[in-house]
Amino acid sequence: MPWRESLSPVQMTRVALVAPIEQRRELLVAIAHNAHVELDLPYSPGDGPDEVDKAVDAAMTSGSTAGWVGWTPAKELPALTEALTSVGAAVVPLGRPRGVQPPTLLTGVGTSRAGVSRTLVDTYGTVPYADVDPSRMAGVAYVVMFGMMFGDLGHGAILVLAGLVLRSGRIKKLASLKKTWLFVAGAGLTSMVFGALYGEAFGPTGLVPVLWLEPMNNPIPLMVTALIFGAVLLAGAYALGTINRVREGGWAYALYASSGAAGAVLFLAIGLLTWGLISNLSPVVLIAVILAATALVFIFIGFFVDAGGGPTGIMQAVIELVDTVIRLGSNVVSFARLAAFGLTHAALLSVVWSATTALWQPDWRALAAILVFVVGNVLTFALEALVAGVQALRLEYYELFSRIFQSEGRPFRPWAPVRSADLHPDSSSERPLP
């Protein structure tokens, strides 16, 4: 599959499904076996023994013809046509109704590589049909943020080992988590990378050299790095948000959206302003002010139109504009937690290592030192893995996804009842046609 296709939901086609009234059950059975059609039914479809009968009764009829409408993936249209032709029915492609959003079916659903990353997105909401699917990018961003907060070569190696154990499927109680192995191993790998950079292996044990900096001795550079990394992620979120706004409503919509082009320009202006003030570059500051003022005007107009205009609309637009500026600054600062929790991890392991070395003596106290080292690492591993996992998830949901998504889509749910009595028209238990 081309990588461009993997970034968007599967293309959907609106279809009409028609057949002679006496063949309507056969049509439904063929659709159920095909399992690639979502029917528009006047009730919530189920999987009970009378599901086919209910769908038969819900058919739209005209003379001697019965029909239904629904959605199907465009790539499945030939197979669906062949299946219906074999029972004397037909499928007719229709135009998409104005204002109706097709259901979302994402590519690679159920695969081990995309599954867990997609869970990050699905837990937040269903990707709208028109939007880019950020699942893979979200997965990469998550494991990098996790690794920065959980940077330790030894602890990361344990996570990698845990991922490989999950992949093997040898522990039956963990079989349901097998598809997460790549995600767990990836988080462990990034933790090992940052652990090597920090010179941490089960703490400051000296087992590995410091390749970049020691978190406890260099908190400011670590904090600045976290903020820069956060700014890069936010820039990517604004880029995806702009693409999504264009796909949802065209360039005019994207131009005024706070999560579209106007918001991206404002974010760029703040970055240029910061650079200009730090470097004392007056031309850069002037350009930043002009860009910021332009972006704020467009964002205000967007808020004003959304509020319905009038004096109330002006007040609401002003409040939302101020909130946008404040949140933009707070969103960047939020990424400081990547450094803060990285420091916490290093500090806890430093305490454990200090207690271990203080107890170490070539006698019985060596056993106490080993016990402190093992228990301390186990507790730190459990606590920090939980904290890093939750904080990375928070950053993705509140700082990144809030810009990528403006609304929520609805998942594609093919009509495919599985009751054998429903799927076999010759079954003796089947109700006769009315």
Structural summary, described in words:
62% of the residues lie in helices and 6% in strands. The protein is an alpha+beta fold. Among the domains are: 3-105 and 414-423, Alpha-Beta Plaits (2-Layer Sandwich); 115-151 and 203-336 and 400-404, no CATH class. Strands 1, 2, 3, 4 and 5 form a five-stranded antiparallel sheet that branches. α6 packs across α8. It is flat, with a radius of gyration of 28 Å. The two termini are 46 Å apart. The relative contact order is 0.13. Mean pLDDT is 89; it is low at 425-434.
Provide key terms for this protein.
single chain, 434 residues, alpha+beta, Alpha-Beta Plaits, five-stranded antiparallel beta sheet, flat
Number of strands: 5
Radius of gyration over all CA atoms, rounded: 28 Å
Q: What integer is the average pLDDT? A: 89
- The general outline is flat
